[in-house]
């Protein structure tokens, strides 16, 4: 049996572990740095709203324990606010996802602790230890393959930055997030004028953005609010001074009342489900070189956020991490008894980059930067025509589908024409 070590029991690490276990012939050990108990009772470190493709992978592995919870996000409701600070919308783009697409966020503390228990219940080997580089050398020397899937943790920094592929040029932006429960925040349709459960996005030029979406936590359905500041120390960068969830909630409530008054009603009866239900930290988007030889000569392979990290802005990092994992696992299975050598690791990583990763990365960069003419024309058309809005929001489920339209003006014109609501026929009743 081939020995595979997985360092990091998070989203991508457990997708890989359960997939390899399901395939059979592998002795897989997951190393992670917190017990299930510590995870359940601890602080949030990250979060995500995976799209349907990821959730269907989880169902096929028998680890989607939250299939039936009423916390799906069914589309986008984006508001670009007046830069003058009046709180009014400059533009608004509302679109239900096409083709049955949806996203469903489960509190990682609940998700990963449940997966840890399930992994052990299925006979998987789990070691709870914070792995340092010296431990990694030992583990890699004793394993046929070692996957480093430590997310934003410091161990991921063993992989050098790939300067050529890291085309994101904005400085690292501080983000903070909080979960809130209450009758309004947890309702399926909190806004009367949006006829579905939306991912709500408020963009405040020169300040930052807030996105919120339904989540399932140990306390039931709640709403997660992520604040991102485009100005360090600006009105949305309050996370560094707030030391408790209650203090952060106070900031979120005040900032919302002042800058996004149409969301203030959500906070009227909202409470924090527990003291750990918030996070703060900057994200530095980058692509790394995920094939690395350690000092003792052993090779390790980075996966998920350890290989490539994106800004939370476009909600793509976790989705990309699982697409990458799926590809790595398929190649591991196809590899049979052949050696897991560095050329093979590099070719699998390059394949992911060429076919998916580069699109996910550029998608986020293009949306976050001042939009180019092609993207701007599509977004403006989408503010006027719900059919175009629906086609546009569908890109979030599979970013490669945004090409060539997102960068090419002629292609953008075609996209608009192809997706526009047909004009009523002459003489037809309106
Ligand atoms: C505010 C915010 C909002 C986000 N929103 C979205 C979204 O909407 N959609 C989306 O797709 N993505 C989103 N993301 C990103 C998403 O959460 C990550 O991309 C995803 O979790 C990456 O999976 P991973 O397995 O690589 O890392 P993680 O899921 O972070 O797992 C890493 C694991 O490794 C463990 N670990 C770390 N260091 C060590 C060590 N030294 N030894 C042992 N174990 C270790 C950690 O405890 C953790 O369990 C968001 C992130 C943030 C911060």
From TrEMBL:
<feature type="domain" description="Styrene monooxygenase StyA putative substrate binding">
    <location>
        <begin position="151"/>
        <end position="262"/>
    </location>
</feature>
<protein>
    <recommendedName>
        <fullName>Styrene monooxygenase StyA putative substrate binding domain-containing protein</fullName>
    </recommendedName>
</protein>
<dbReference type="InterPro" id="IPR036188">
    <property type="entry name" value="FAD/NAD-bd_sf"/>
</dbReference>
<dbReference type="InterPro" id="IPR041654">
    <property type="entry name" value="StyA_sbd"/>
</dbReference>
<dbReference type="Pfam" id="PF17885">
    <property type="entry name" value="Smoa_sbd"/>
</dbReference>
């Amino acid at each position: 049996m081939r020995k595979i070590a997985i360092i990091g029991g998070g989203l991508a690490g457990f997708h890989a572990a359960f997939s390899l276990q399901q395939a059979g012939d592998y002795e897989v050990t997951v190393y992670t740095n917190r017990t299930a108990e510590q995870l359940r009772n601890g602080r949030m470190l990250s979060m995500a709203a995976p799209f349907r493709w990821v959730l269907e992978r989880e169902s096929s592995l028998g680890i989607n324990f939250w299939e039936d919870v009423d916390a799906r996000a069914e589309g986008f409701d984006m508001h670009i606010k007046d830069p003058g600070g009046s709180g009014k919308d400059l533009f608004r783009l509302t679109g239900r996802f096409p083709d049955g697409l949806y996203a469903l966020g489960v509190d990682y503390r609940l998700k990963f602790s449940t997966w840890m228990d399930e992994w052990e219940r299925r006979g998987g080997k789990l070691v709870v230890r914070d792995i340092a580089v010296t431990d990694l050398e030992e583990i890699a020397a004793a394993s046929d393959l070692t996957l480093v899937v430590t997310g934003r943790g410091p161990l991921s920094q063993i992989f050098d930055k790939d300067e050529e592929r890291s085309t994101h040029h904005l400085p690292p932006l501080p983000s903070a997030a909080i979960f809130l429960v209450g009758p309004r925040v947890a309702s399926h349709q909190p806004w009367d004028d949006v006829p579905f459960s939306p991912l709500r996005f408020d963009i405040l030029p020169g300040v930052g953005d807030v996105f919120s979406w339904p989540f399932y936590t140990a306390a039931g359905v709640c709403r997660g609010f992520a604040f991102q500041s485009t100005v360090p120390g600006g009105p949305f960068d309050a996370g560094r001074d707030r030391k408790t969830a209650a203090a952060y909630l106070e900031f979120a409530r005040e900032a919302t009342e002042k800058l996004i008054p149409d969301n203030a009603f959500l906070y009227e009866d909202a409470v924090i489900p527990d003291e750990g239900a918030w996070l703060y930290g900057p994200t530095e988007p980058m692509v790394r070189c995920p094939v690395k030889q350690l000092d003792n000569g052993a090779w390790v392979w980075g996966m998920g956020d350890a290989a490539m990290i994106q800004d939370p802005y476009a909600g793509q990092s976790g989705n990309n991490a699982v697409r990458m994992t799926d590809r790595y696992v398929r190649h591991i299975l196809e590899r049979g008894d052949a050696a897991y050598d560095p050329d093979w690791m590099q070719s699998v990583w390059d394949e992911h980059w060429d076919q998916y990763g580069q699109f996910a990365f550029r998608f986020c960069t293009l949306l976050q930067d001042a939009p180019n003419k092609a993207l701007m024309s599509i977004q403006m058309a989408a503010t006027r025509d719900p059919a175009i809005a629906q086609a546009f929001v569908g890109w979030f489920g599979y970013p490669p589908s945004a090409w060539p339209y997102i960068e090419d003006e002629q292609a953008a014109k075609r996209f608009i024409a192809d997706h526009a609501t047909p004009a009523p026929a002459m003489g037809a009743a309106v």
